[in-house]
Amino acid sequence: MIRKGNNSWEIRTQEDNIYMPEFTVWEADGTQRRSYGGALTYGVWQYLVATYNGAATFLYRVTDDPFTIETLTTSSAMDGNIQTNTSPIVIADSSNGGTGKQIMSIDEVKIYNKVLSPAEIKKNYKHGLSKHS
């Protein structure tokens, strides 16, 4: 779905379950840390947030009625350094060279250089709701 080159970070669906989101970060030594879980609902607009705070990755799904920030998963501890590369960020491409299934639309991608707080996640979600009602 969205990735930074090969072996830096990516948000995608799992290869064996296209409804299961996954956020992967590679540490500087090549170790992978994954956050995944919480099946997506086909045909329903959903808001996913992936964060990395220097110690772990987090994958959230935000829902309304009632408003909830659901933690889908948290990775194991990390050493703080993400593997870097000079590759561009790619949106709407599978990480396996374009042969994977893509049955969803991606809308309003935002990438920040900081970890968003729950209040900031809520504000961004509420702002986007009016566009998808």
Report strand order across the widest sheet: 4-3-2-1-8
What do the pLDDT scores average to?
77
Number of helices: 1
Distance between the termini: 23 Å
Q: Note the main sheet.
A: 5 strands, antiparallel
* Total beta-strand segments: 8
State the low-pLDDT regions, or none: none
Q: Secondary-structure element order, as H and E? A: EEEEEEEEH
The share of residues in helices is: under 10%
Strand content: 35-45%
Give the C-alpha Rg.
Answer: 15 Å
Specify the structural class.
Answer: mainly beta
The tally of domains stands at 1
Global shape: globular
Textual characterization of the structure:
- The chain has one domain.
- With 133 residues, the protein is mainly β.
- Helices cover 9% and strands 35% of the residues.
- The protein is globular, with a radius of gyration of 15 Å.
- The strands form 2 sheets. A 5-stranded antiparallel sheet has the order 4-3-2-1-8, with no helix packed on it.
Outline the fold blueprint:
Blueprint: E1 2-4, E2 9-14, E3 17-26, E4 32-36, E5 47-52, E6 57-63, E7 68-74, E8 89-91, H1 118-129
Antiparallel strand pairs: 1-2, 1-8, 2-3, 3-4, 5-6, 6-7
Q: Which structural traits does this protein have?
A:
133 residues; mainly beta; five-stranded antiparallel beta sheet; three-stranded antiparallel beta sheet; 1 helix; 8 strands; globular
Task: Give a quick summary of the entry.
The protein is mainly β and 133 residues long. It has one domain. Helix content is 9%, strand content 35%.
